[in-house]
Amino acid sequence: xxxxxxxxxxxxxxxxxxxxxxxxxxxxxxxxxxxxxxxxxxxxxxxxxxxxxxxxxxxxxxxxxxxxxxxxxxxxxxxxxxxxxxxxxxxxxxxxxxxxxxxxxxxxxxxxxxxxxxxxxxxxxxxxxxxxxxxxxxxxxxxxxxxxxxxxxxxxxxxxxxxxxxxxxxxxxxxxxxxxxxxxxxxxxxxxxxxxxxxxxxxxxxxxxxxxxxxxxxxxxxxxxxxxxxxxxxxxxxxxxxxxxxxxxxxxxxxxxxxxxxxxxxxxxxxxxxxxxxxxxxxxxxxxxxxxxxxxxxxxxxxxxxxxxxxxxxxxxxxxxxxxxxxxxxxxxxxxxxxxxxxxxxxxxxxxxxxxxxxxxxxxxxxxxxxxxxxxxxxxxxxxxxxxxxxxxxxxx
Length: 397
Prior knowledge:
- The protein is an all-alpha fold.
- The chain has helices at residues 4-44, 49-77, 79-98, 103-117, 120-129, 137-162, 167-187, 202-213, 220-232, 237-243, 249-277, 280-296, 303-330, 337-366, 369-388, 390-395.
């Protein structure tokens, strides 16, 4: 029988492996679609920004469509085999994107990359929240999103420095991240962090899941539109910084660091505060702050003001992310964690799949103001809804 101290150490080790894998998966994904692909598609392949946005949307759509099935598999085969397959095939997907020579091949390769990464979030969230309690649920979600931001932010900074020198080196760096993730997946012991699913048929399991999600069905529209707002900015952020803000690669990296670092620093303290005081008011405040930052960003401003707005946007997400996901975690029974997280992330991912294609189109139709003000409008509507709506007050405590 294991001692409590050894049990805690084993839990810390396992959680660290999951957080490391998530960070590496998002390192590759974020660097690819925020930095590398928009430049590679428009400059090397000669495609329009709208087509680049379509390729990015194909990635997020594939990720979205397969998260539910992958979550169901997490409950049955465990996280370890799924994460091993994810990183192995992810290396191949990045290689295919690198060697795409047409719009169609690029869209297909990006969609395949979305399929390969779809096990990551259901596996990691299941693994890290398996032993969570109501007293530390938001804190743990803060750790998860800290890993996401650290991984994604590191990818943005590193690729921003590399891409000006070598596209080839940029692609090789993303493949290396997949290889390191594969090594971490090998270090997982059994990959079954939650309760085992035994003694029920898959039809009975689906019936249980259907009953479980009815309590949060009113939040599904919100899951879609808030992620769509973020997706609007994916294909345009780097080009907006270079063309409209006239910032250098180093300044853009500093902007990413400023907003991302503040978010990471605040996520765990905000998670602890939300564990204590609830989620509804923090959600309202976070959405309103994000809207203010996005409304102001398209104006041509001095770089220090842009940096401050980036920090404001980062602070708003430090509030939104743990509050939103702590609420979802409260609705997930331990024996069906993978399946339900897969469903929640599928619903959320629909918005992220729509956003890049729409963001590229808004940019071409209205310029920078289109995607930024579109995202800001969505956040204002979300803040009002969760602040005033009597139904959501009964759902979000």
